[in-house]
Design a protein that fits this description.
Chain lengths: 298, 289
């Protein structure tokens, strides 16, 4: 809005530059503030990206180069670290596992959260407020609290070390969030649309799928993004509930610590690869994510 | 707000959510409650001990220290992240390519798995292979997060600021975008200063998102586990051992199920209490509108 600010002042000033020196001073002031803002933002982004750049930089170096000194560019550029990851199923299956349970979680969360969010946004029913708070309170439960009971629960129902176990466990925080965000988006859709559709003879399921869901497309995209985000970054539960078959990449990464010292290059390469899916996903929802970050509630 | 229709059949729509969350929430929670009142030697030998563990946990000096550390930590990061996040949001462009680009770049840290965040800072902060560590020692600061408690503490705070300021920034950014252009035009006609625009137009509009931001930051920082675990392992000593980590040490490290369960419940109740206060505030504010 600083941008439009400046342009507005400028267009108004062109006509009467001589008569109103106050304006041009104000204009200079806004432009200075504008430049300062840009400079500050660039500075912030540089500081923000520096640690990530360092990781990327390191992933293209050999271990000898990493340990021999600091440099901003890899002198001895190598893809060996990445080749190692993509050549070893115990490594790359970690990515497959992670993506698999994250997608499952996304689908489950959306399927159950859509009708529930509709109910919360449209109807009053017994215990609705308590239910809503109870759902949110699960988002507040520290995973460390549930670690052991989760392990016992999923072992006893025979789901230990399966993708669905992790997906279900992550539902505990993605579902409440999904309901919360979707409820915000749905409340923005006028009730009259529902009523008109019912008068036109739509049944509830038909109305919901054909009319309502297309209306909150962007909300669904944003919700999926948030489910992805929180499921992808979580490690504690995912690690506890898996051992071999569904082990997430984030847990496999810890392998580099053992052996003879630390394989820094490999660790960096594995880290870089965990950042990529997130960047891809945010690229798709970039235009709606601003609204989503306010949880549809601005 | 729109008036809602009273309809108890809506429960059928909520039922799937209820079932799926209940499976993963109520059963484990009841298990924890069950443990917290029993002394367990093995699956077949257990005694009912009542509130014994709760008393022990409340008086445990290690846990009290962890709790204090946790509060100081959460408070520190919120104090830093909220103003910084507002500043970043104010500086972000609103239109064109630059807006999308800035949005994506700012959001990156939020999408990195938490242990990778720990790894990034573990590497970045080391004096021999990391840029930050090398920079600190080149300007003559004896910096080592692995052995000095103050440095470890600062690194964990810095890491959290790096990791989570984007969340506050993006929340504020979306709040700012929702302000109609006419407000700014009116301010220009009144020749309002930049500060006045911020204080009387932008800040009031941001209150809602800021409460959500502080709520999320409080909850998440109060549950923080993975990042400090990877970075410092809770050390040196116990200078960066926060509540979650103290809990995991007790439950899995020493296998003290009873006290750990009692501790879990107290921990959960603290978060719940603070969040309930926040939630009621948000709801009341929305009602006022």
């Amino acid at each position: 809005m600083t941008q439009s600010n400046t342009s507005m002042t400028r267009t108004r000033n062109t006509g009467k530059k001589e008569q109103a020196p106050v304006y041009s001073k104000a204009e200079r002031k806004t432009r200075n503030a504008h430049l300062r803002g840009r400079f500050g933002l660039v500075l912030y982004l540089v500081l923000l990206l520096l640690p990530i750049y360092w990781l990327i930089n390191m992933s293209f170096k050999t271990n000898t180069e990493i340990l021999s000194g600091l440099s901003f560019f890899p002198e001895d550029f190598t893809l060996a670290n990445y080749a190692k990851i993509f050549g070893d199923p115990t490594w790359y299956m970690g990515y497959v596992n992670s993506i698999f349970y994250v997608s499952m979680n996304m689908v489950i969360s959306l399927l159950v959260a859509l009708p529930a969010a509709y109910a919360f946004s449209r109807y009053k029913f017994i215990g609705d407020k308590h239910m809503f708070f109870w759902l949110l309170s699960n988002r507040m439960a520290p995973p460390a609290v549930f670690l052991l009971p989760f392990f016992q629960l999923y072992s006893s129902v025979g789901l230990f070390d399966t993708h669905i176990a992790v997906a279900l466990a992550h539902c505990i925080f993605t579902v409440p969030l999904a309901v919360w965000i979707l409820e915000g988006f749905m409340s923005g859709v006028p009730r009259e649309i529902d009523e008109t559709a019912y008068i036109d003879g739509y049944s509830f399921p038909k109305f919901f799928v054909r009319i309502f869901i297309p209306l909150i497309r962007s909300g669904i995209g944003v919700t999926a993004f948030f489910c992805f985000m929180f499921s992808w970054v979580e490690l504690l539960l995912a690690r506890t509930l898996t051992s071999v078959d569904a082990k997430p990449i984030a847990a496999i990464m810890t392998r580099t610590v053992s052996a003879s010292g630390m394989d820094w290059g490999l660790l960096a390469a594995a880290g870089v690869l965990t950042i990529l899916p997130g960047m891809l996903v945010i690229y798709f929802v970039r235009n709606h994510v601003a609204k989503g970050f306010a949880l549809g509630r601005v | 707000m729109q008036t809602k229709v009273e309809n108890n059949k809506a429960w059928f729509l909520v039922l799937p959510v209820f079932l799926i969350v209940a499976f993963s929430a109520i059963i484990p929670l009841m298990t924890v409650v069950n443990y917290s009142v029993q002394d367990i030697f093995d699956p077949y030998t257990r005694y009912f001990v009542g509130t014994e563990w709760f008393k022990q946990v409340m008086l445990d000096s290690r846990l009290q220290e962890a709790l204090l550390r946790q509060f100081i930590y959460s408070f520190t990061i919120i104090i830093i992240e909220v103003p910084l996040g507002i500043c970043v949001a104010l500086m972000m462009p609103t239109k064109g390519r630059g807006a999308s680009l800035a949005l994506i770049l700012v959001a990156i840290p939020l999408l990195i798995p938490w242990n990778v965040v720990g790894t990034i800072w573990q590497i970045f902060g080391r004096a021999d292979i990391g840029l930050f560590g090398a920079f600190m020692s080149s300007i003559g600061v004896d910096y080592n997060y692995a052995s000095d408690p103050t440095d470890a503490w600062l690194t964990v705070v810095l890491m959290d600021v790096w990791h989570w300021t984007p969340l506050v920034a993006l929340l504020c950014y979306s709040g700012l975008r929702a302000i109609p252009e006419v407000y700014y035009q009116a301010a220009r006609i009144d020749q309002a200063s930049r500060w006045a625009v911020f204080r009387y137009i932008q800040l009031p509009k941001l209150t809602n998102v800021l409460i959500i931001g502080v709520l999320l930051r409080f909850m998440d920082s109060f549950m923080i586990y993975t990042e400090p675990f990877v970075l410092t392992g809770g050390g040196p000593g116990s200078s960066t051992t926060f509540l979650s980590q103290a809990l995991v040490q007790q439950a899995i490290g020493q296998f003290d199920l009873g006290p750990a369960a009692a501790f879990s419940l107290v921990y959960f109740l603290i978060i719940l209490l603070v969040c309930w206060v926040f939630y009621t505030t948000i709801m009341n504010m929305q009602k006022d509108k």
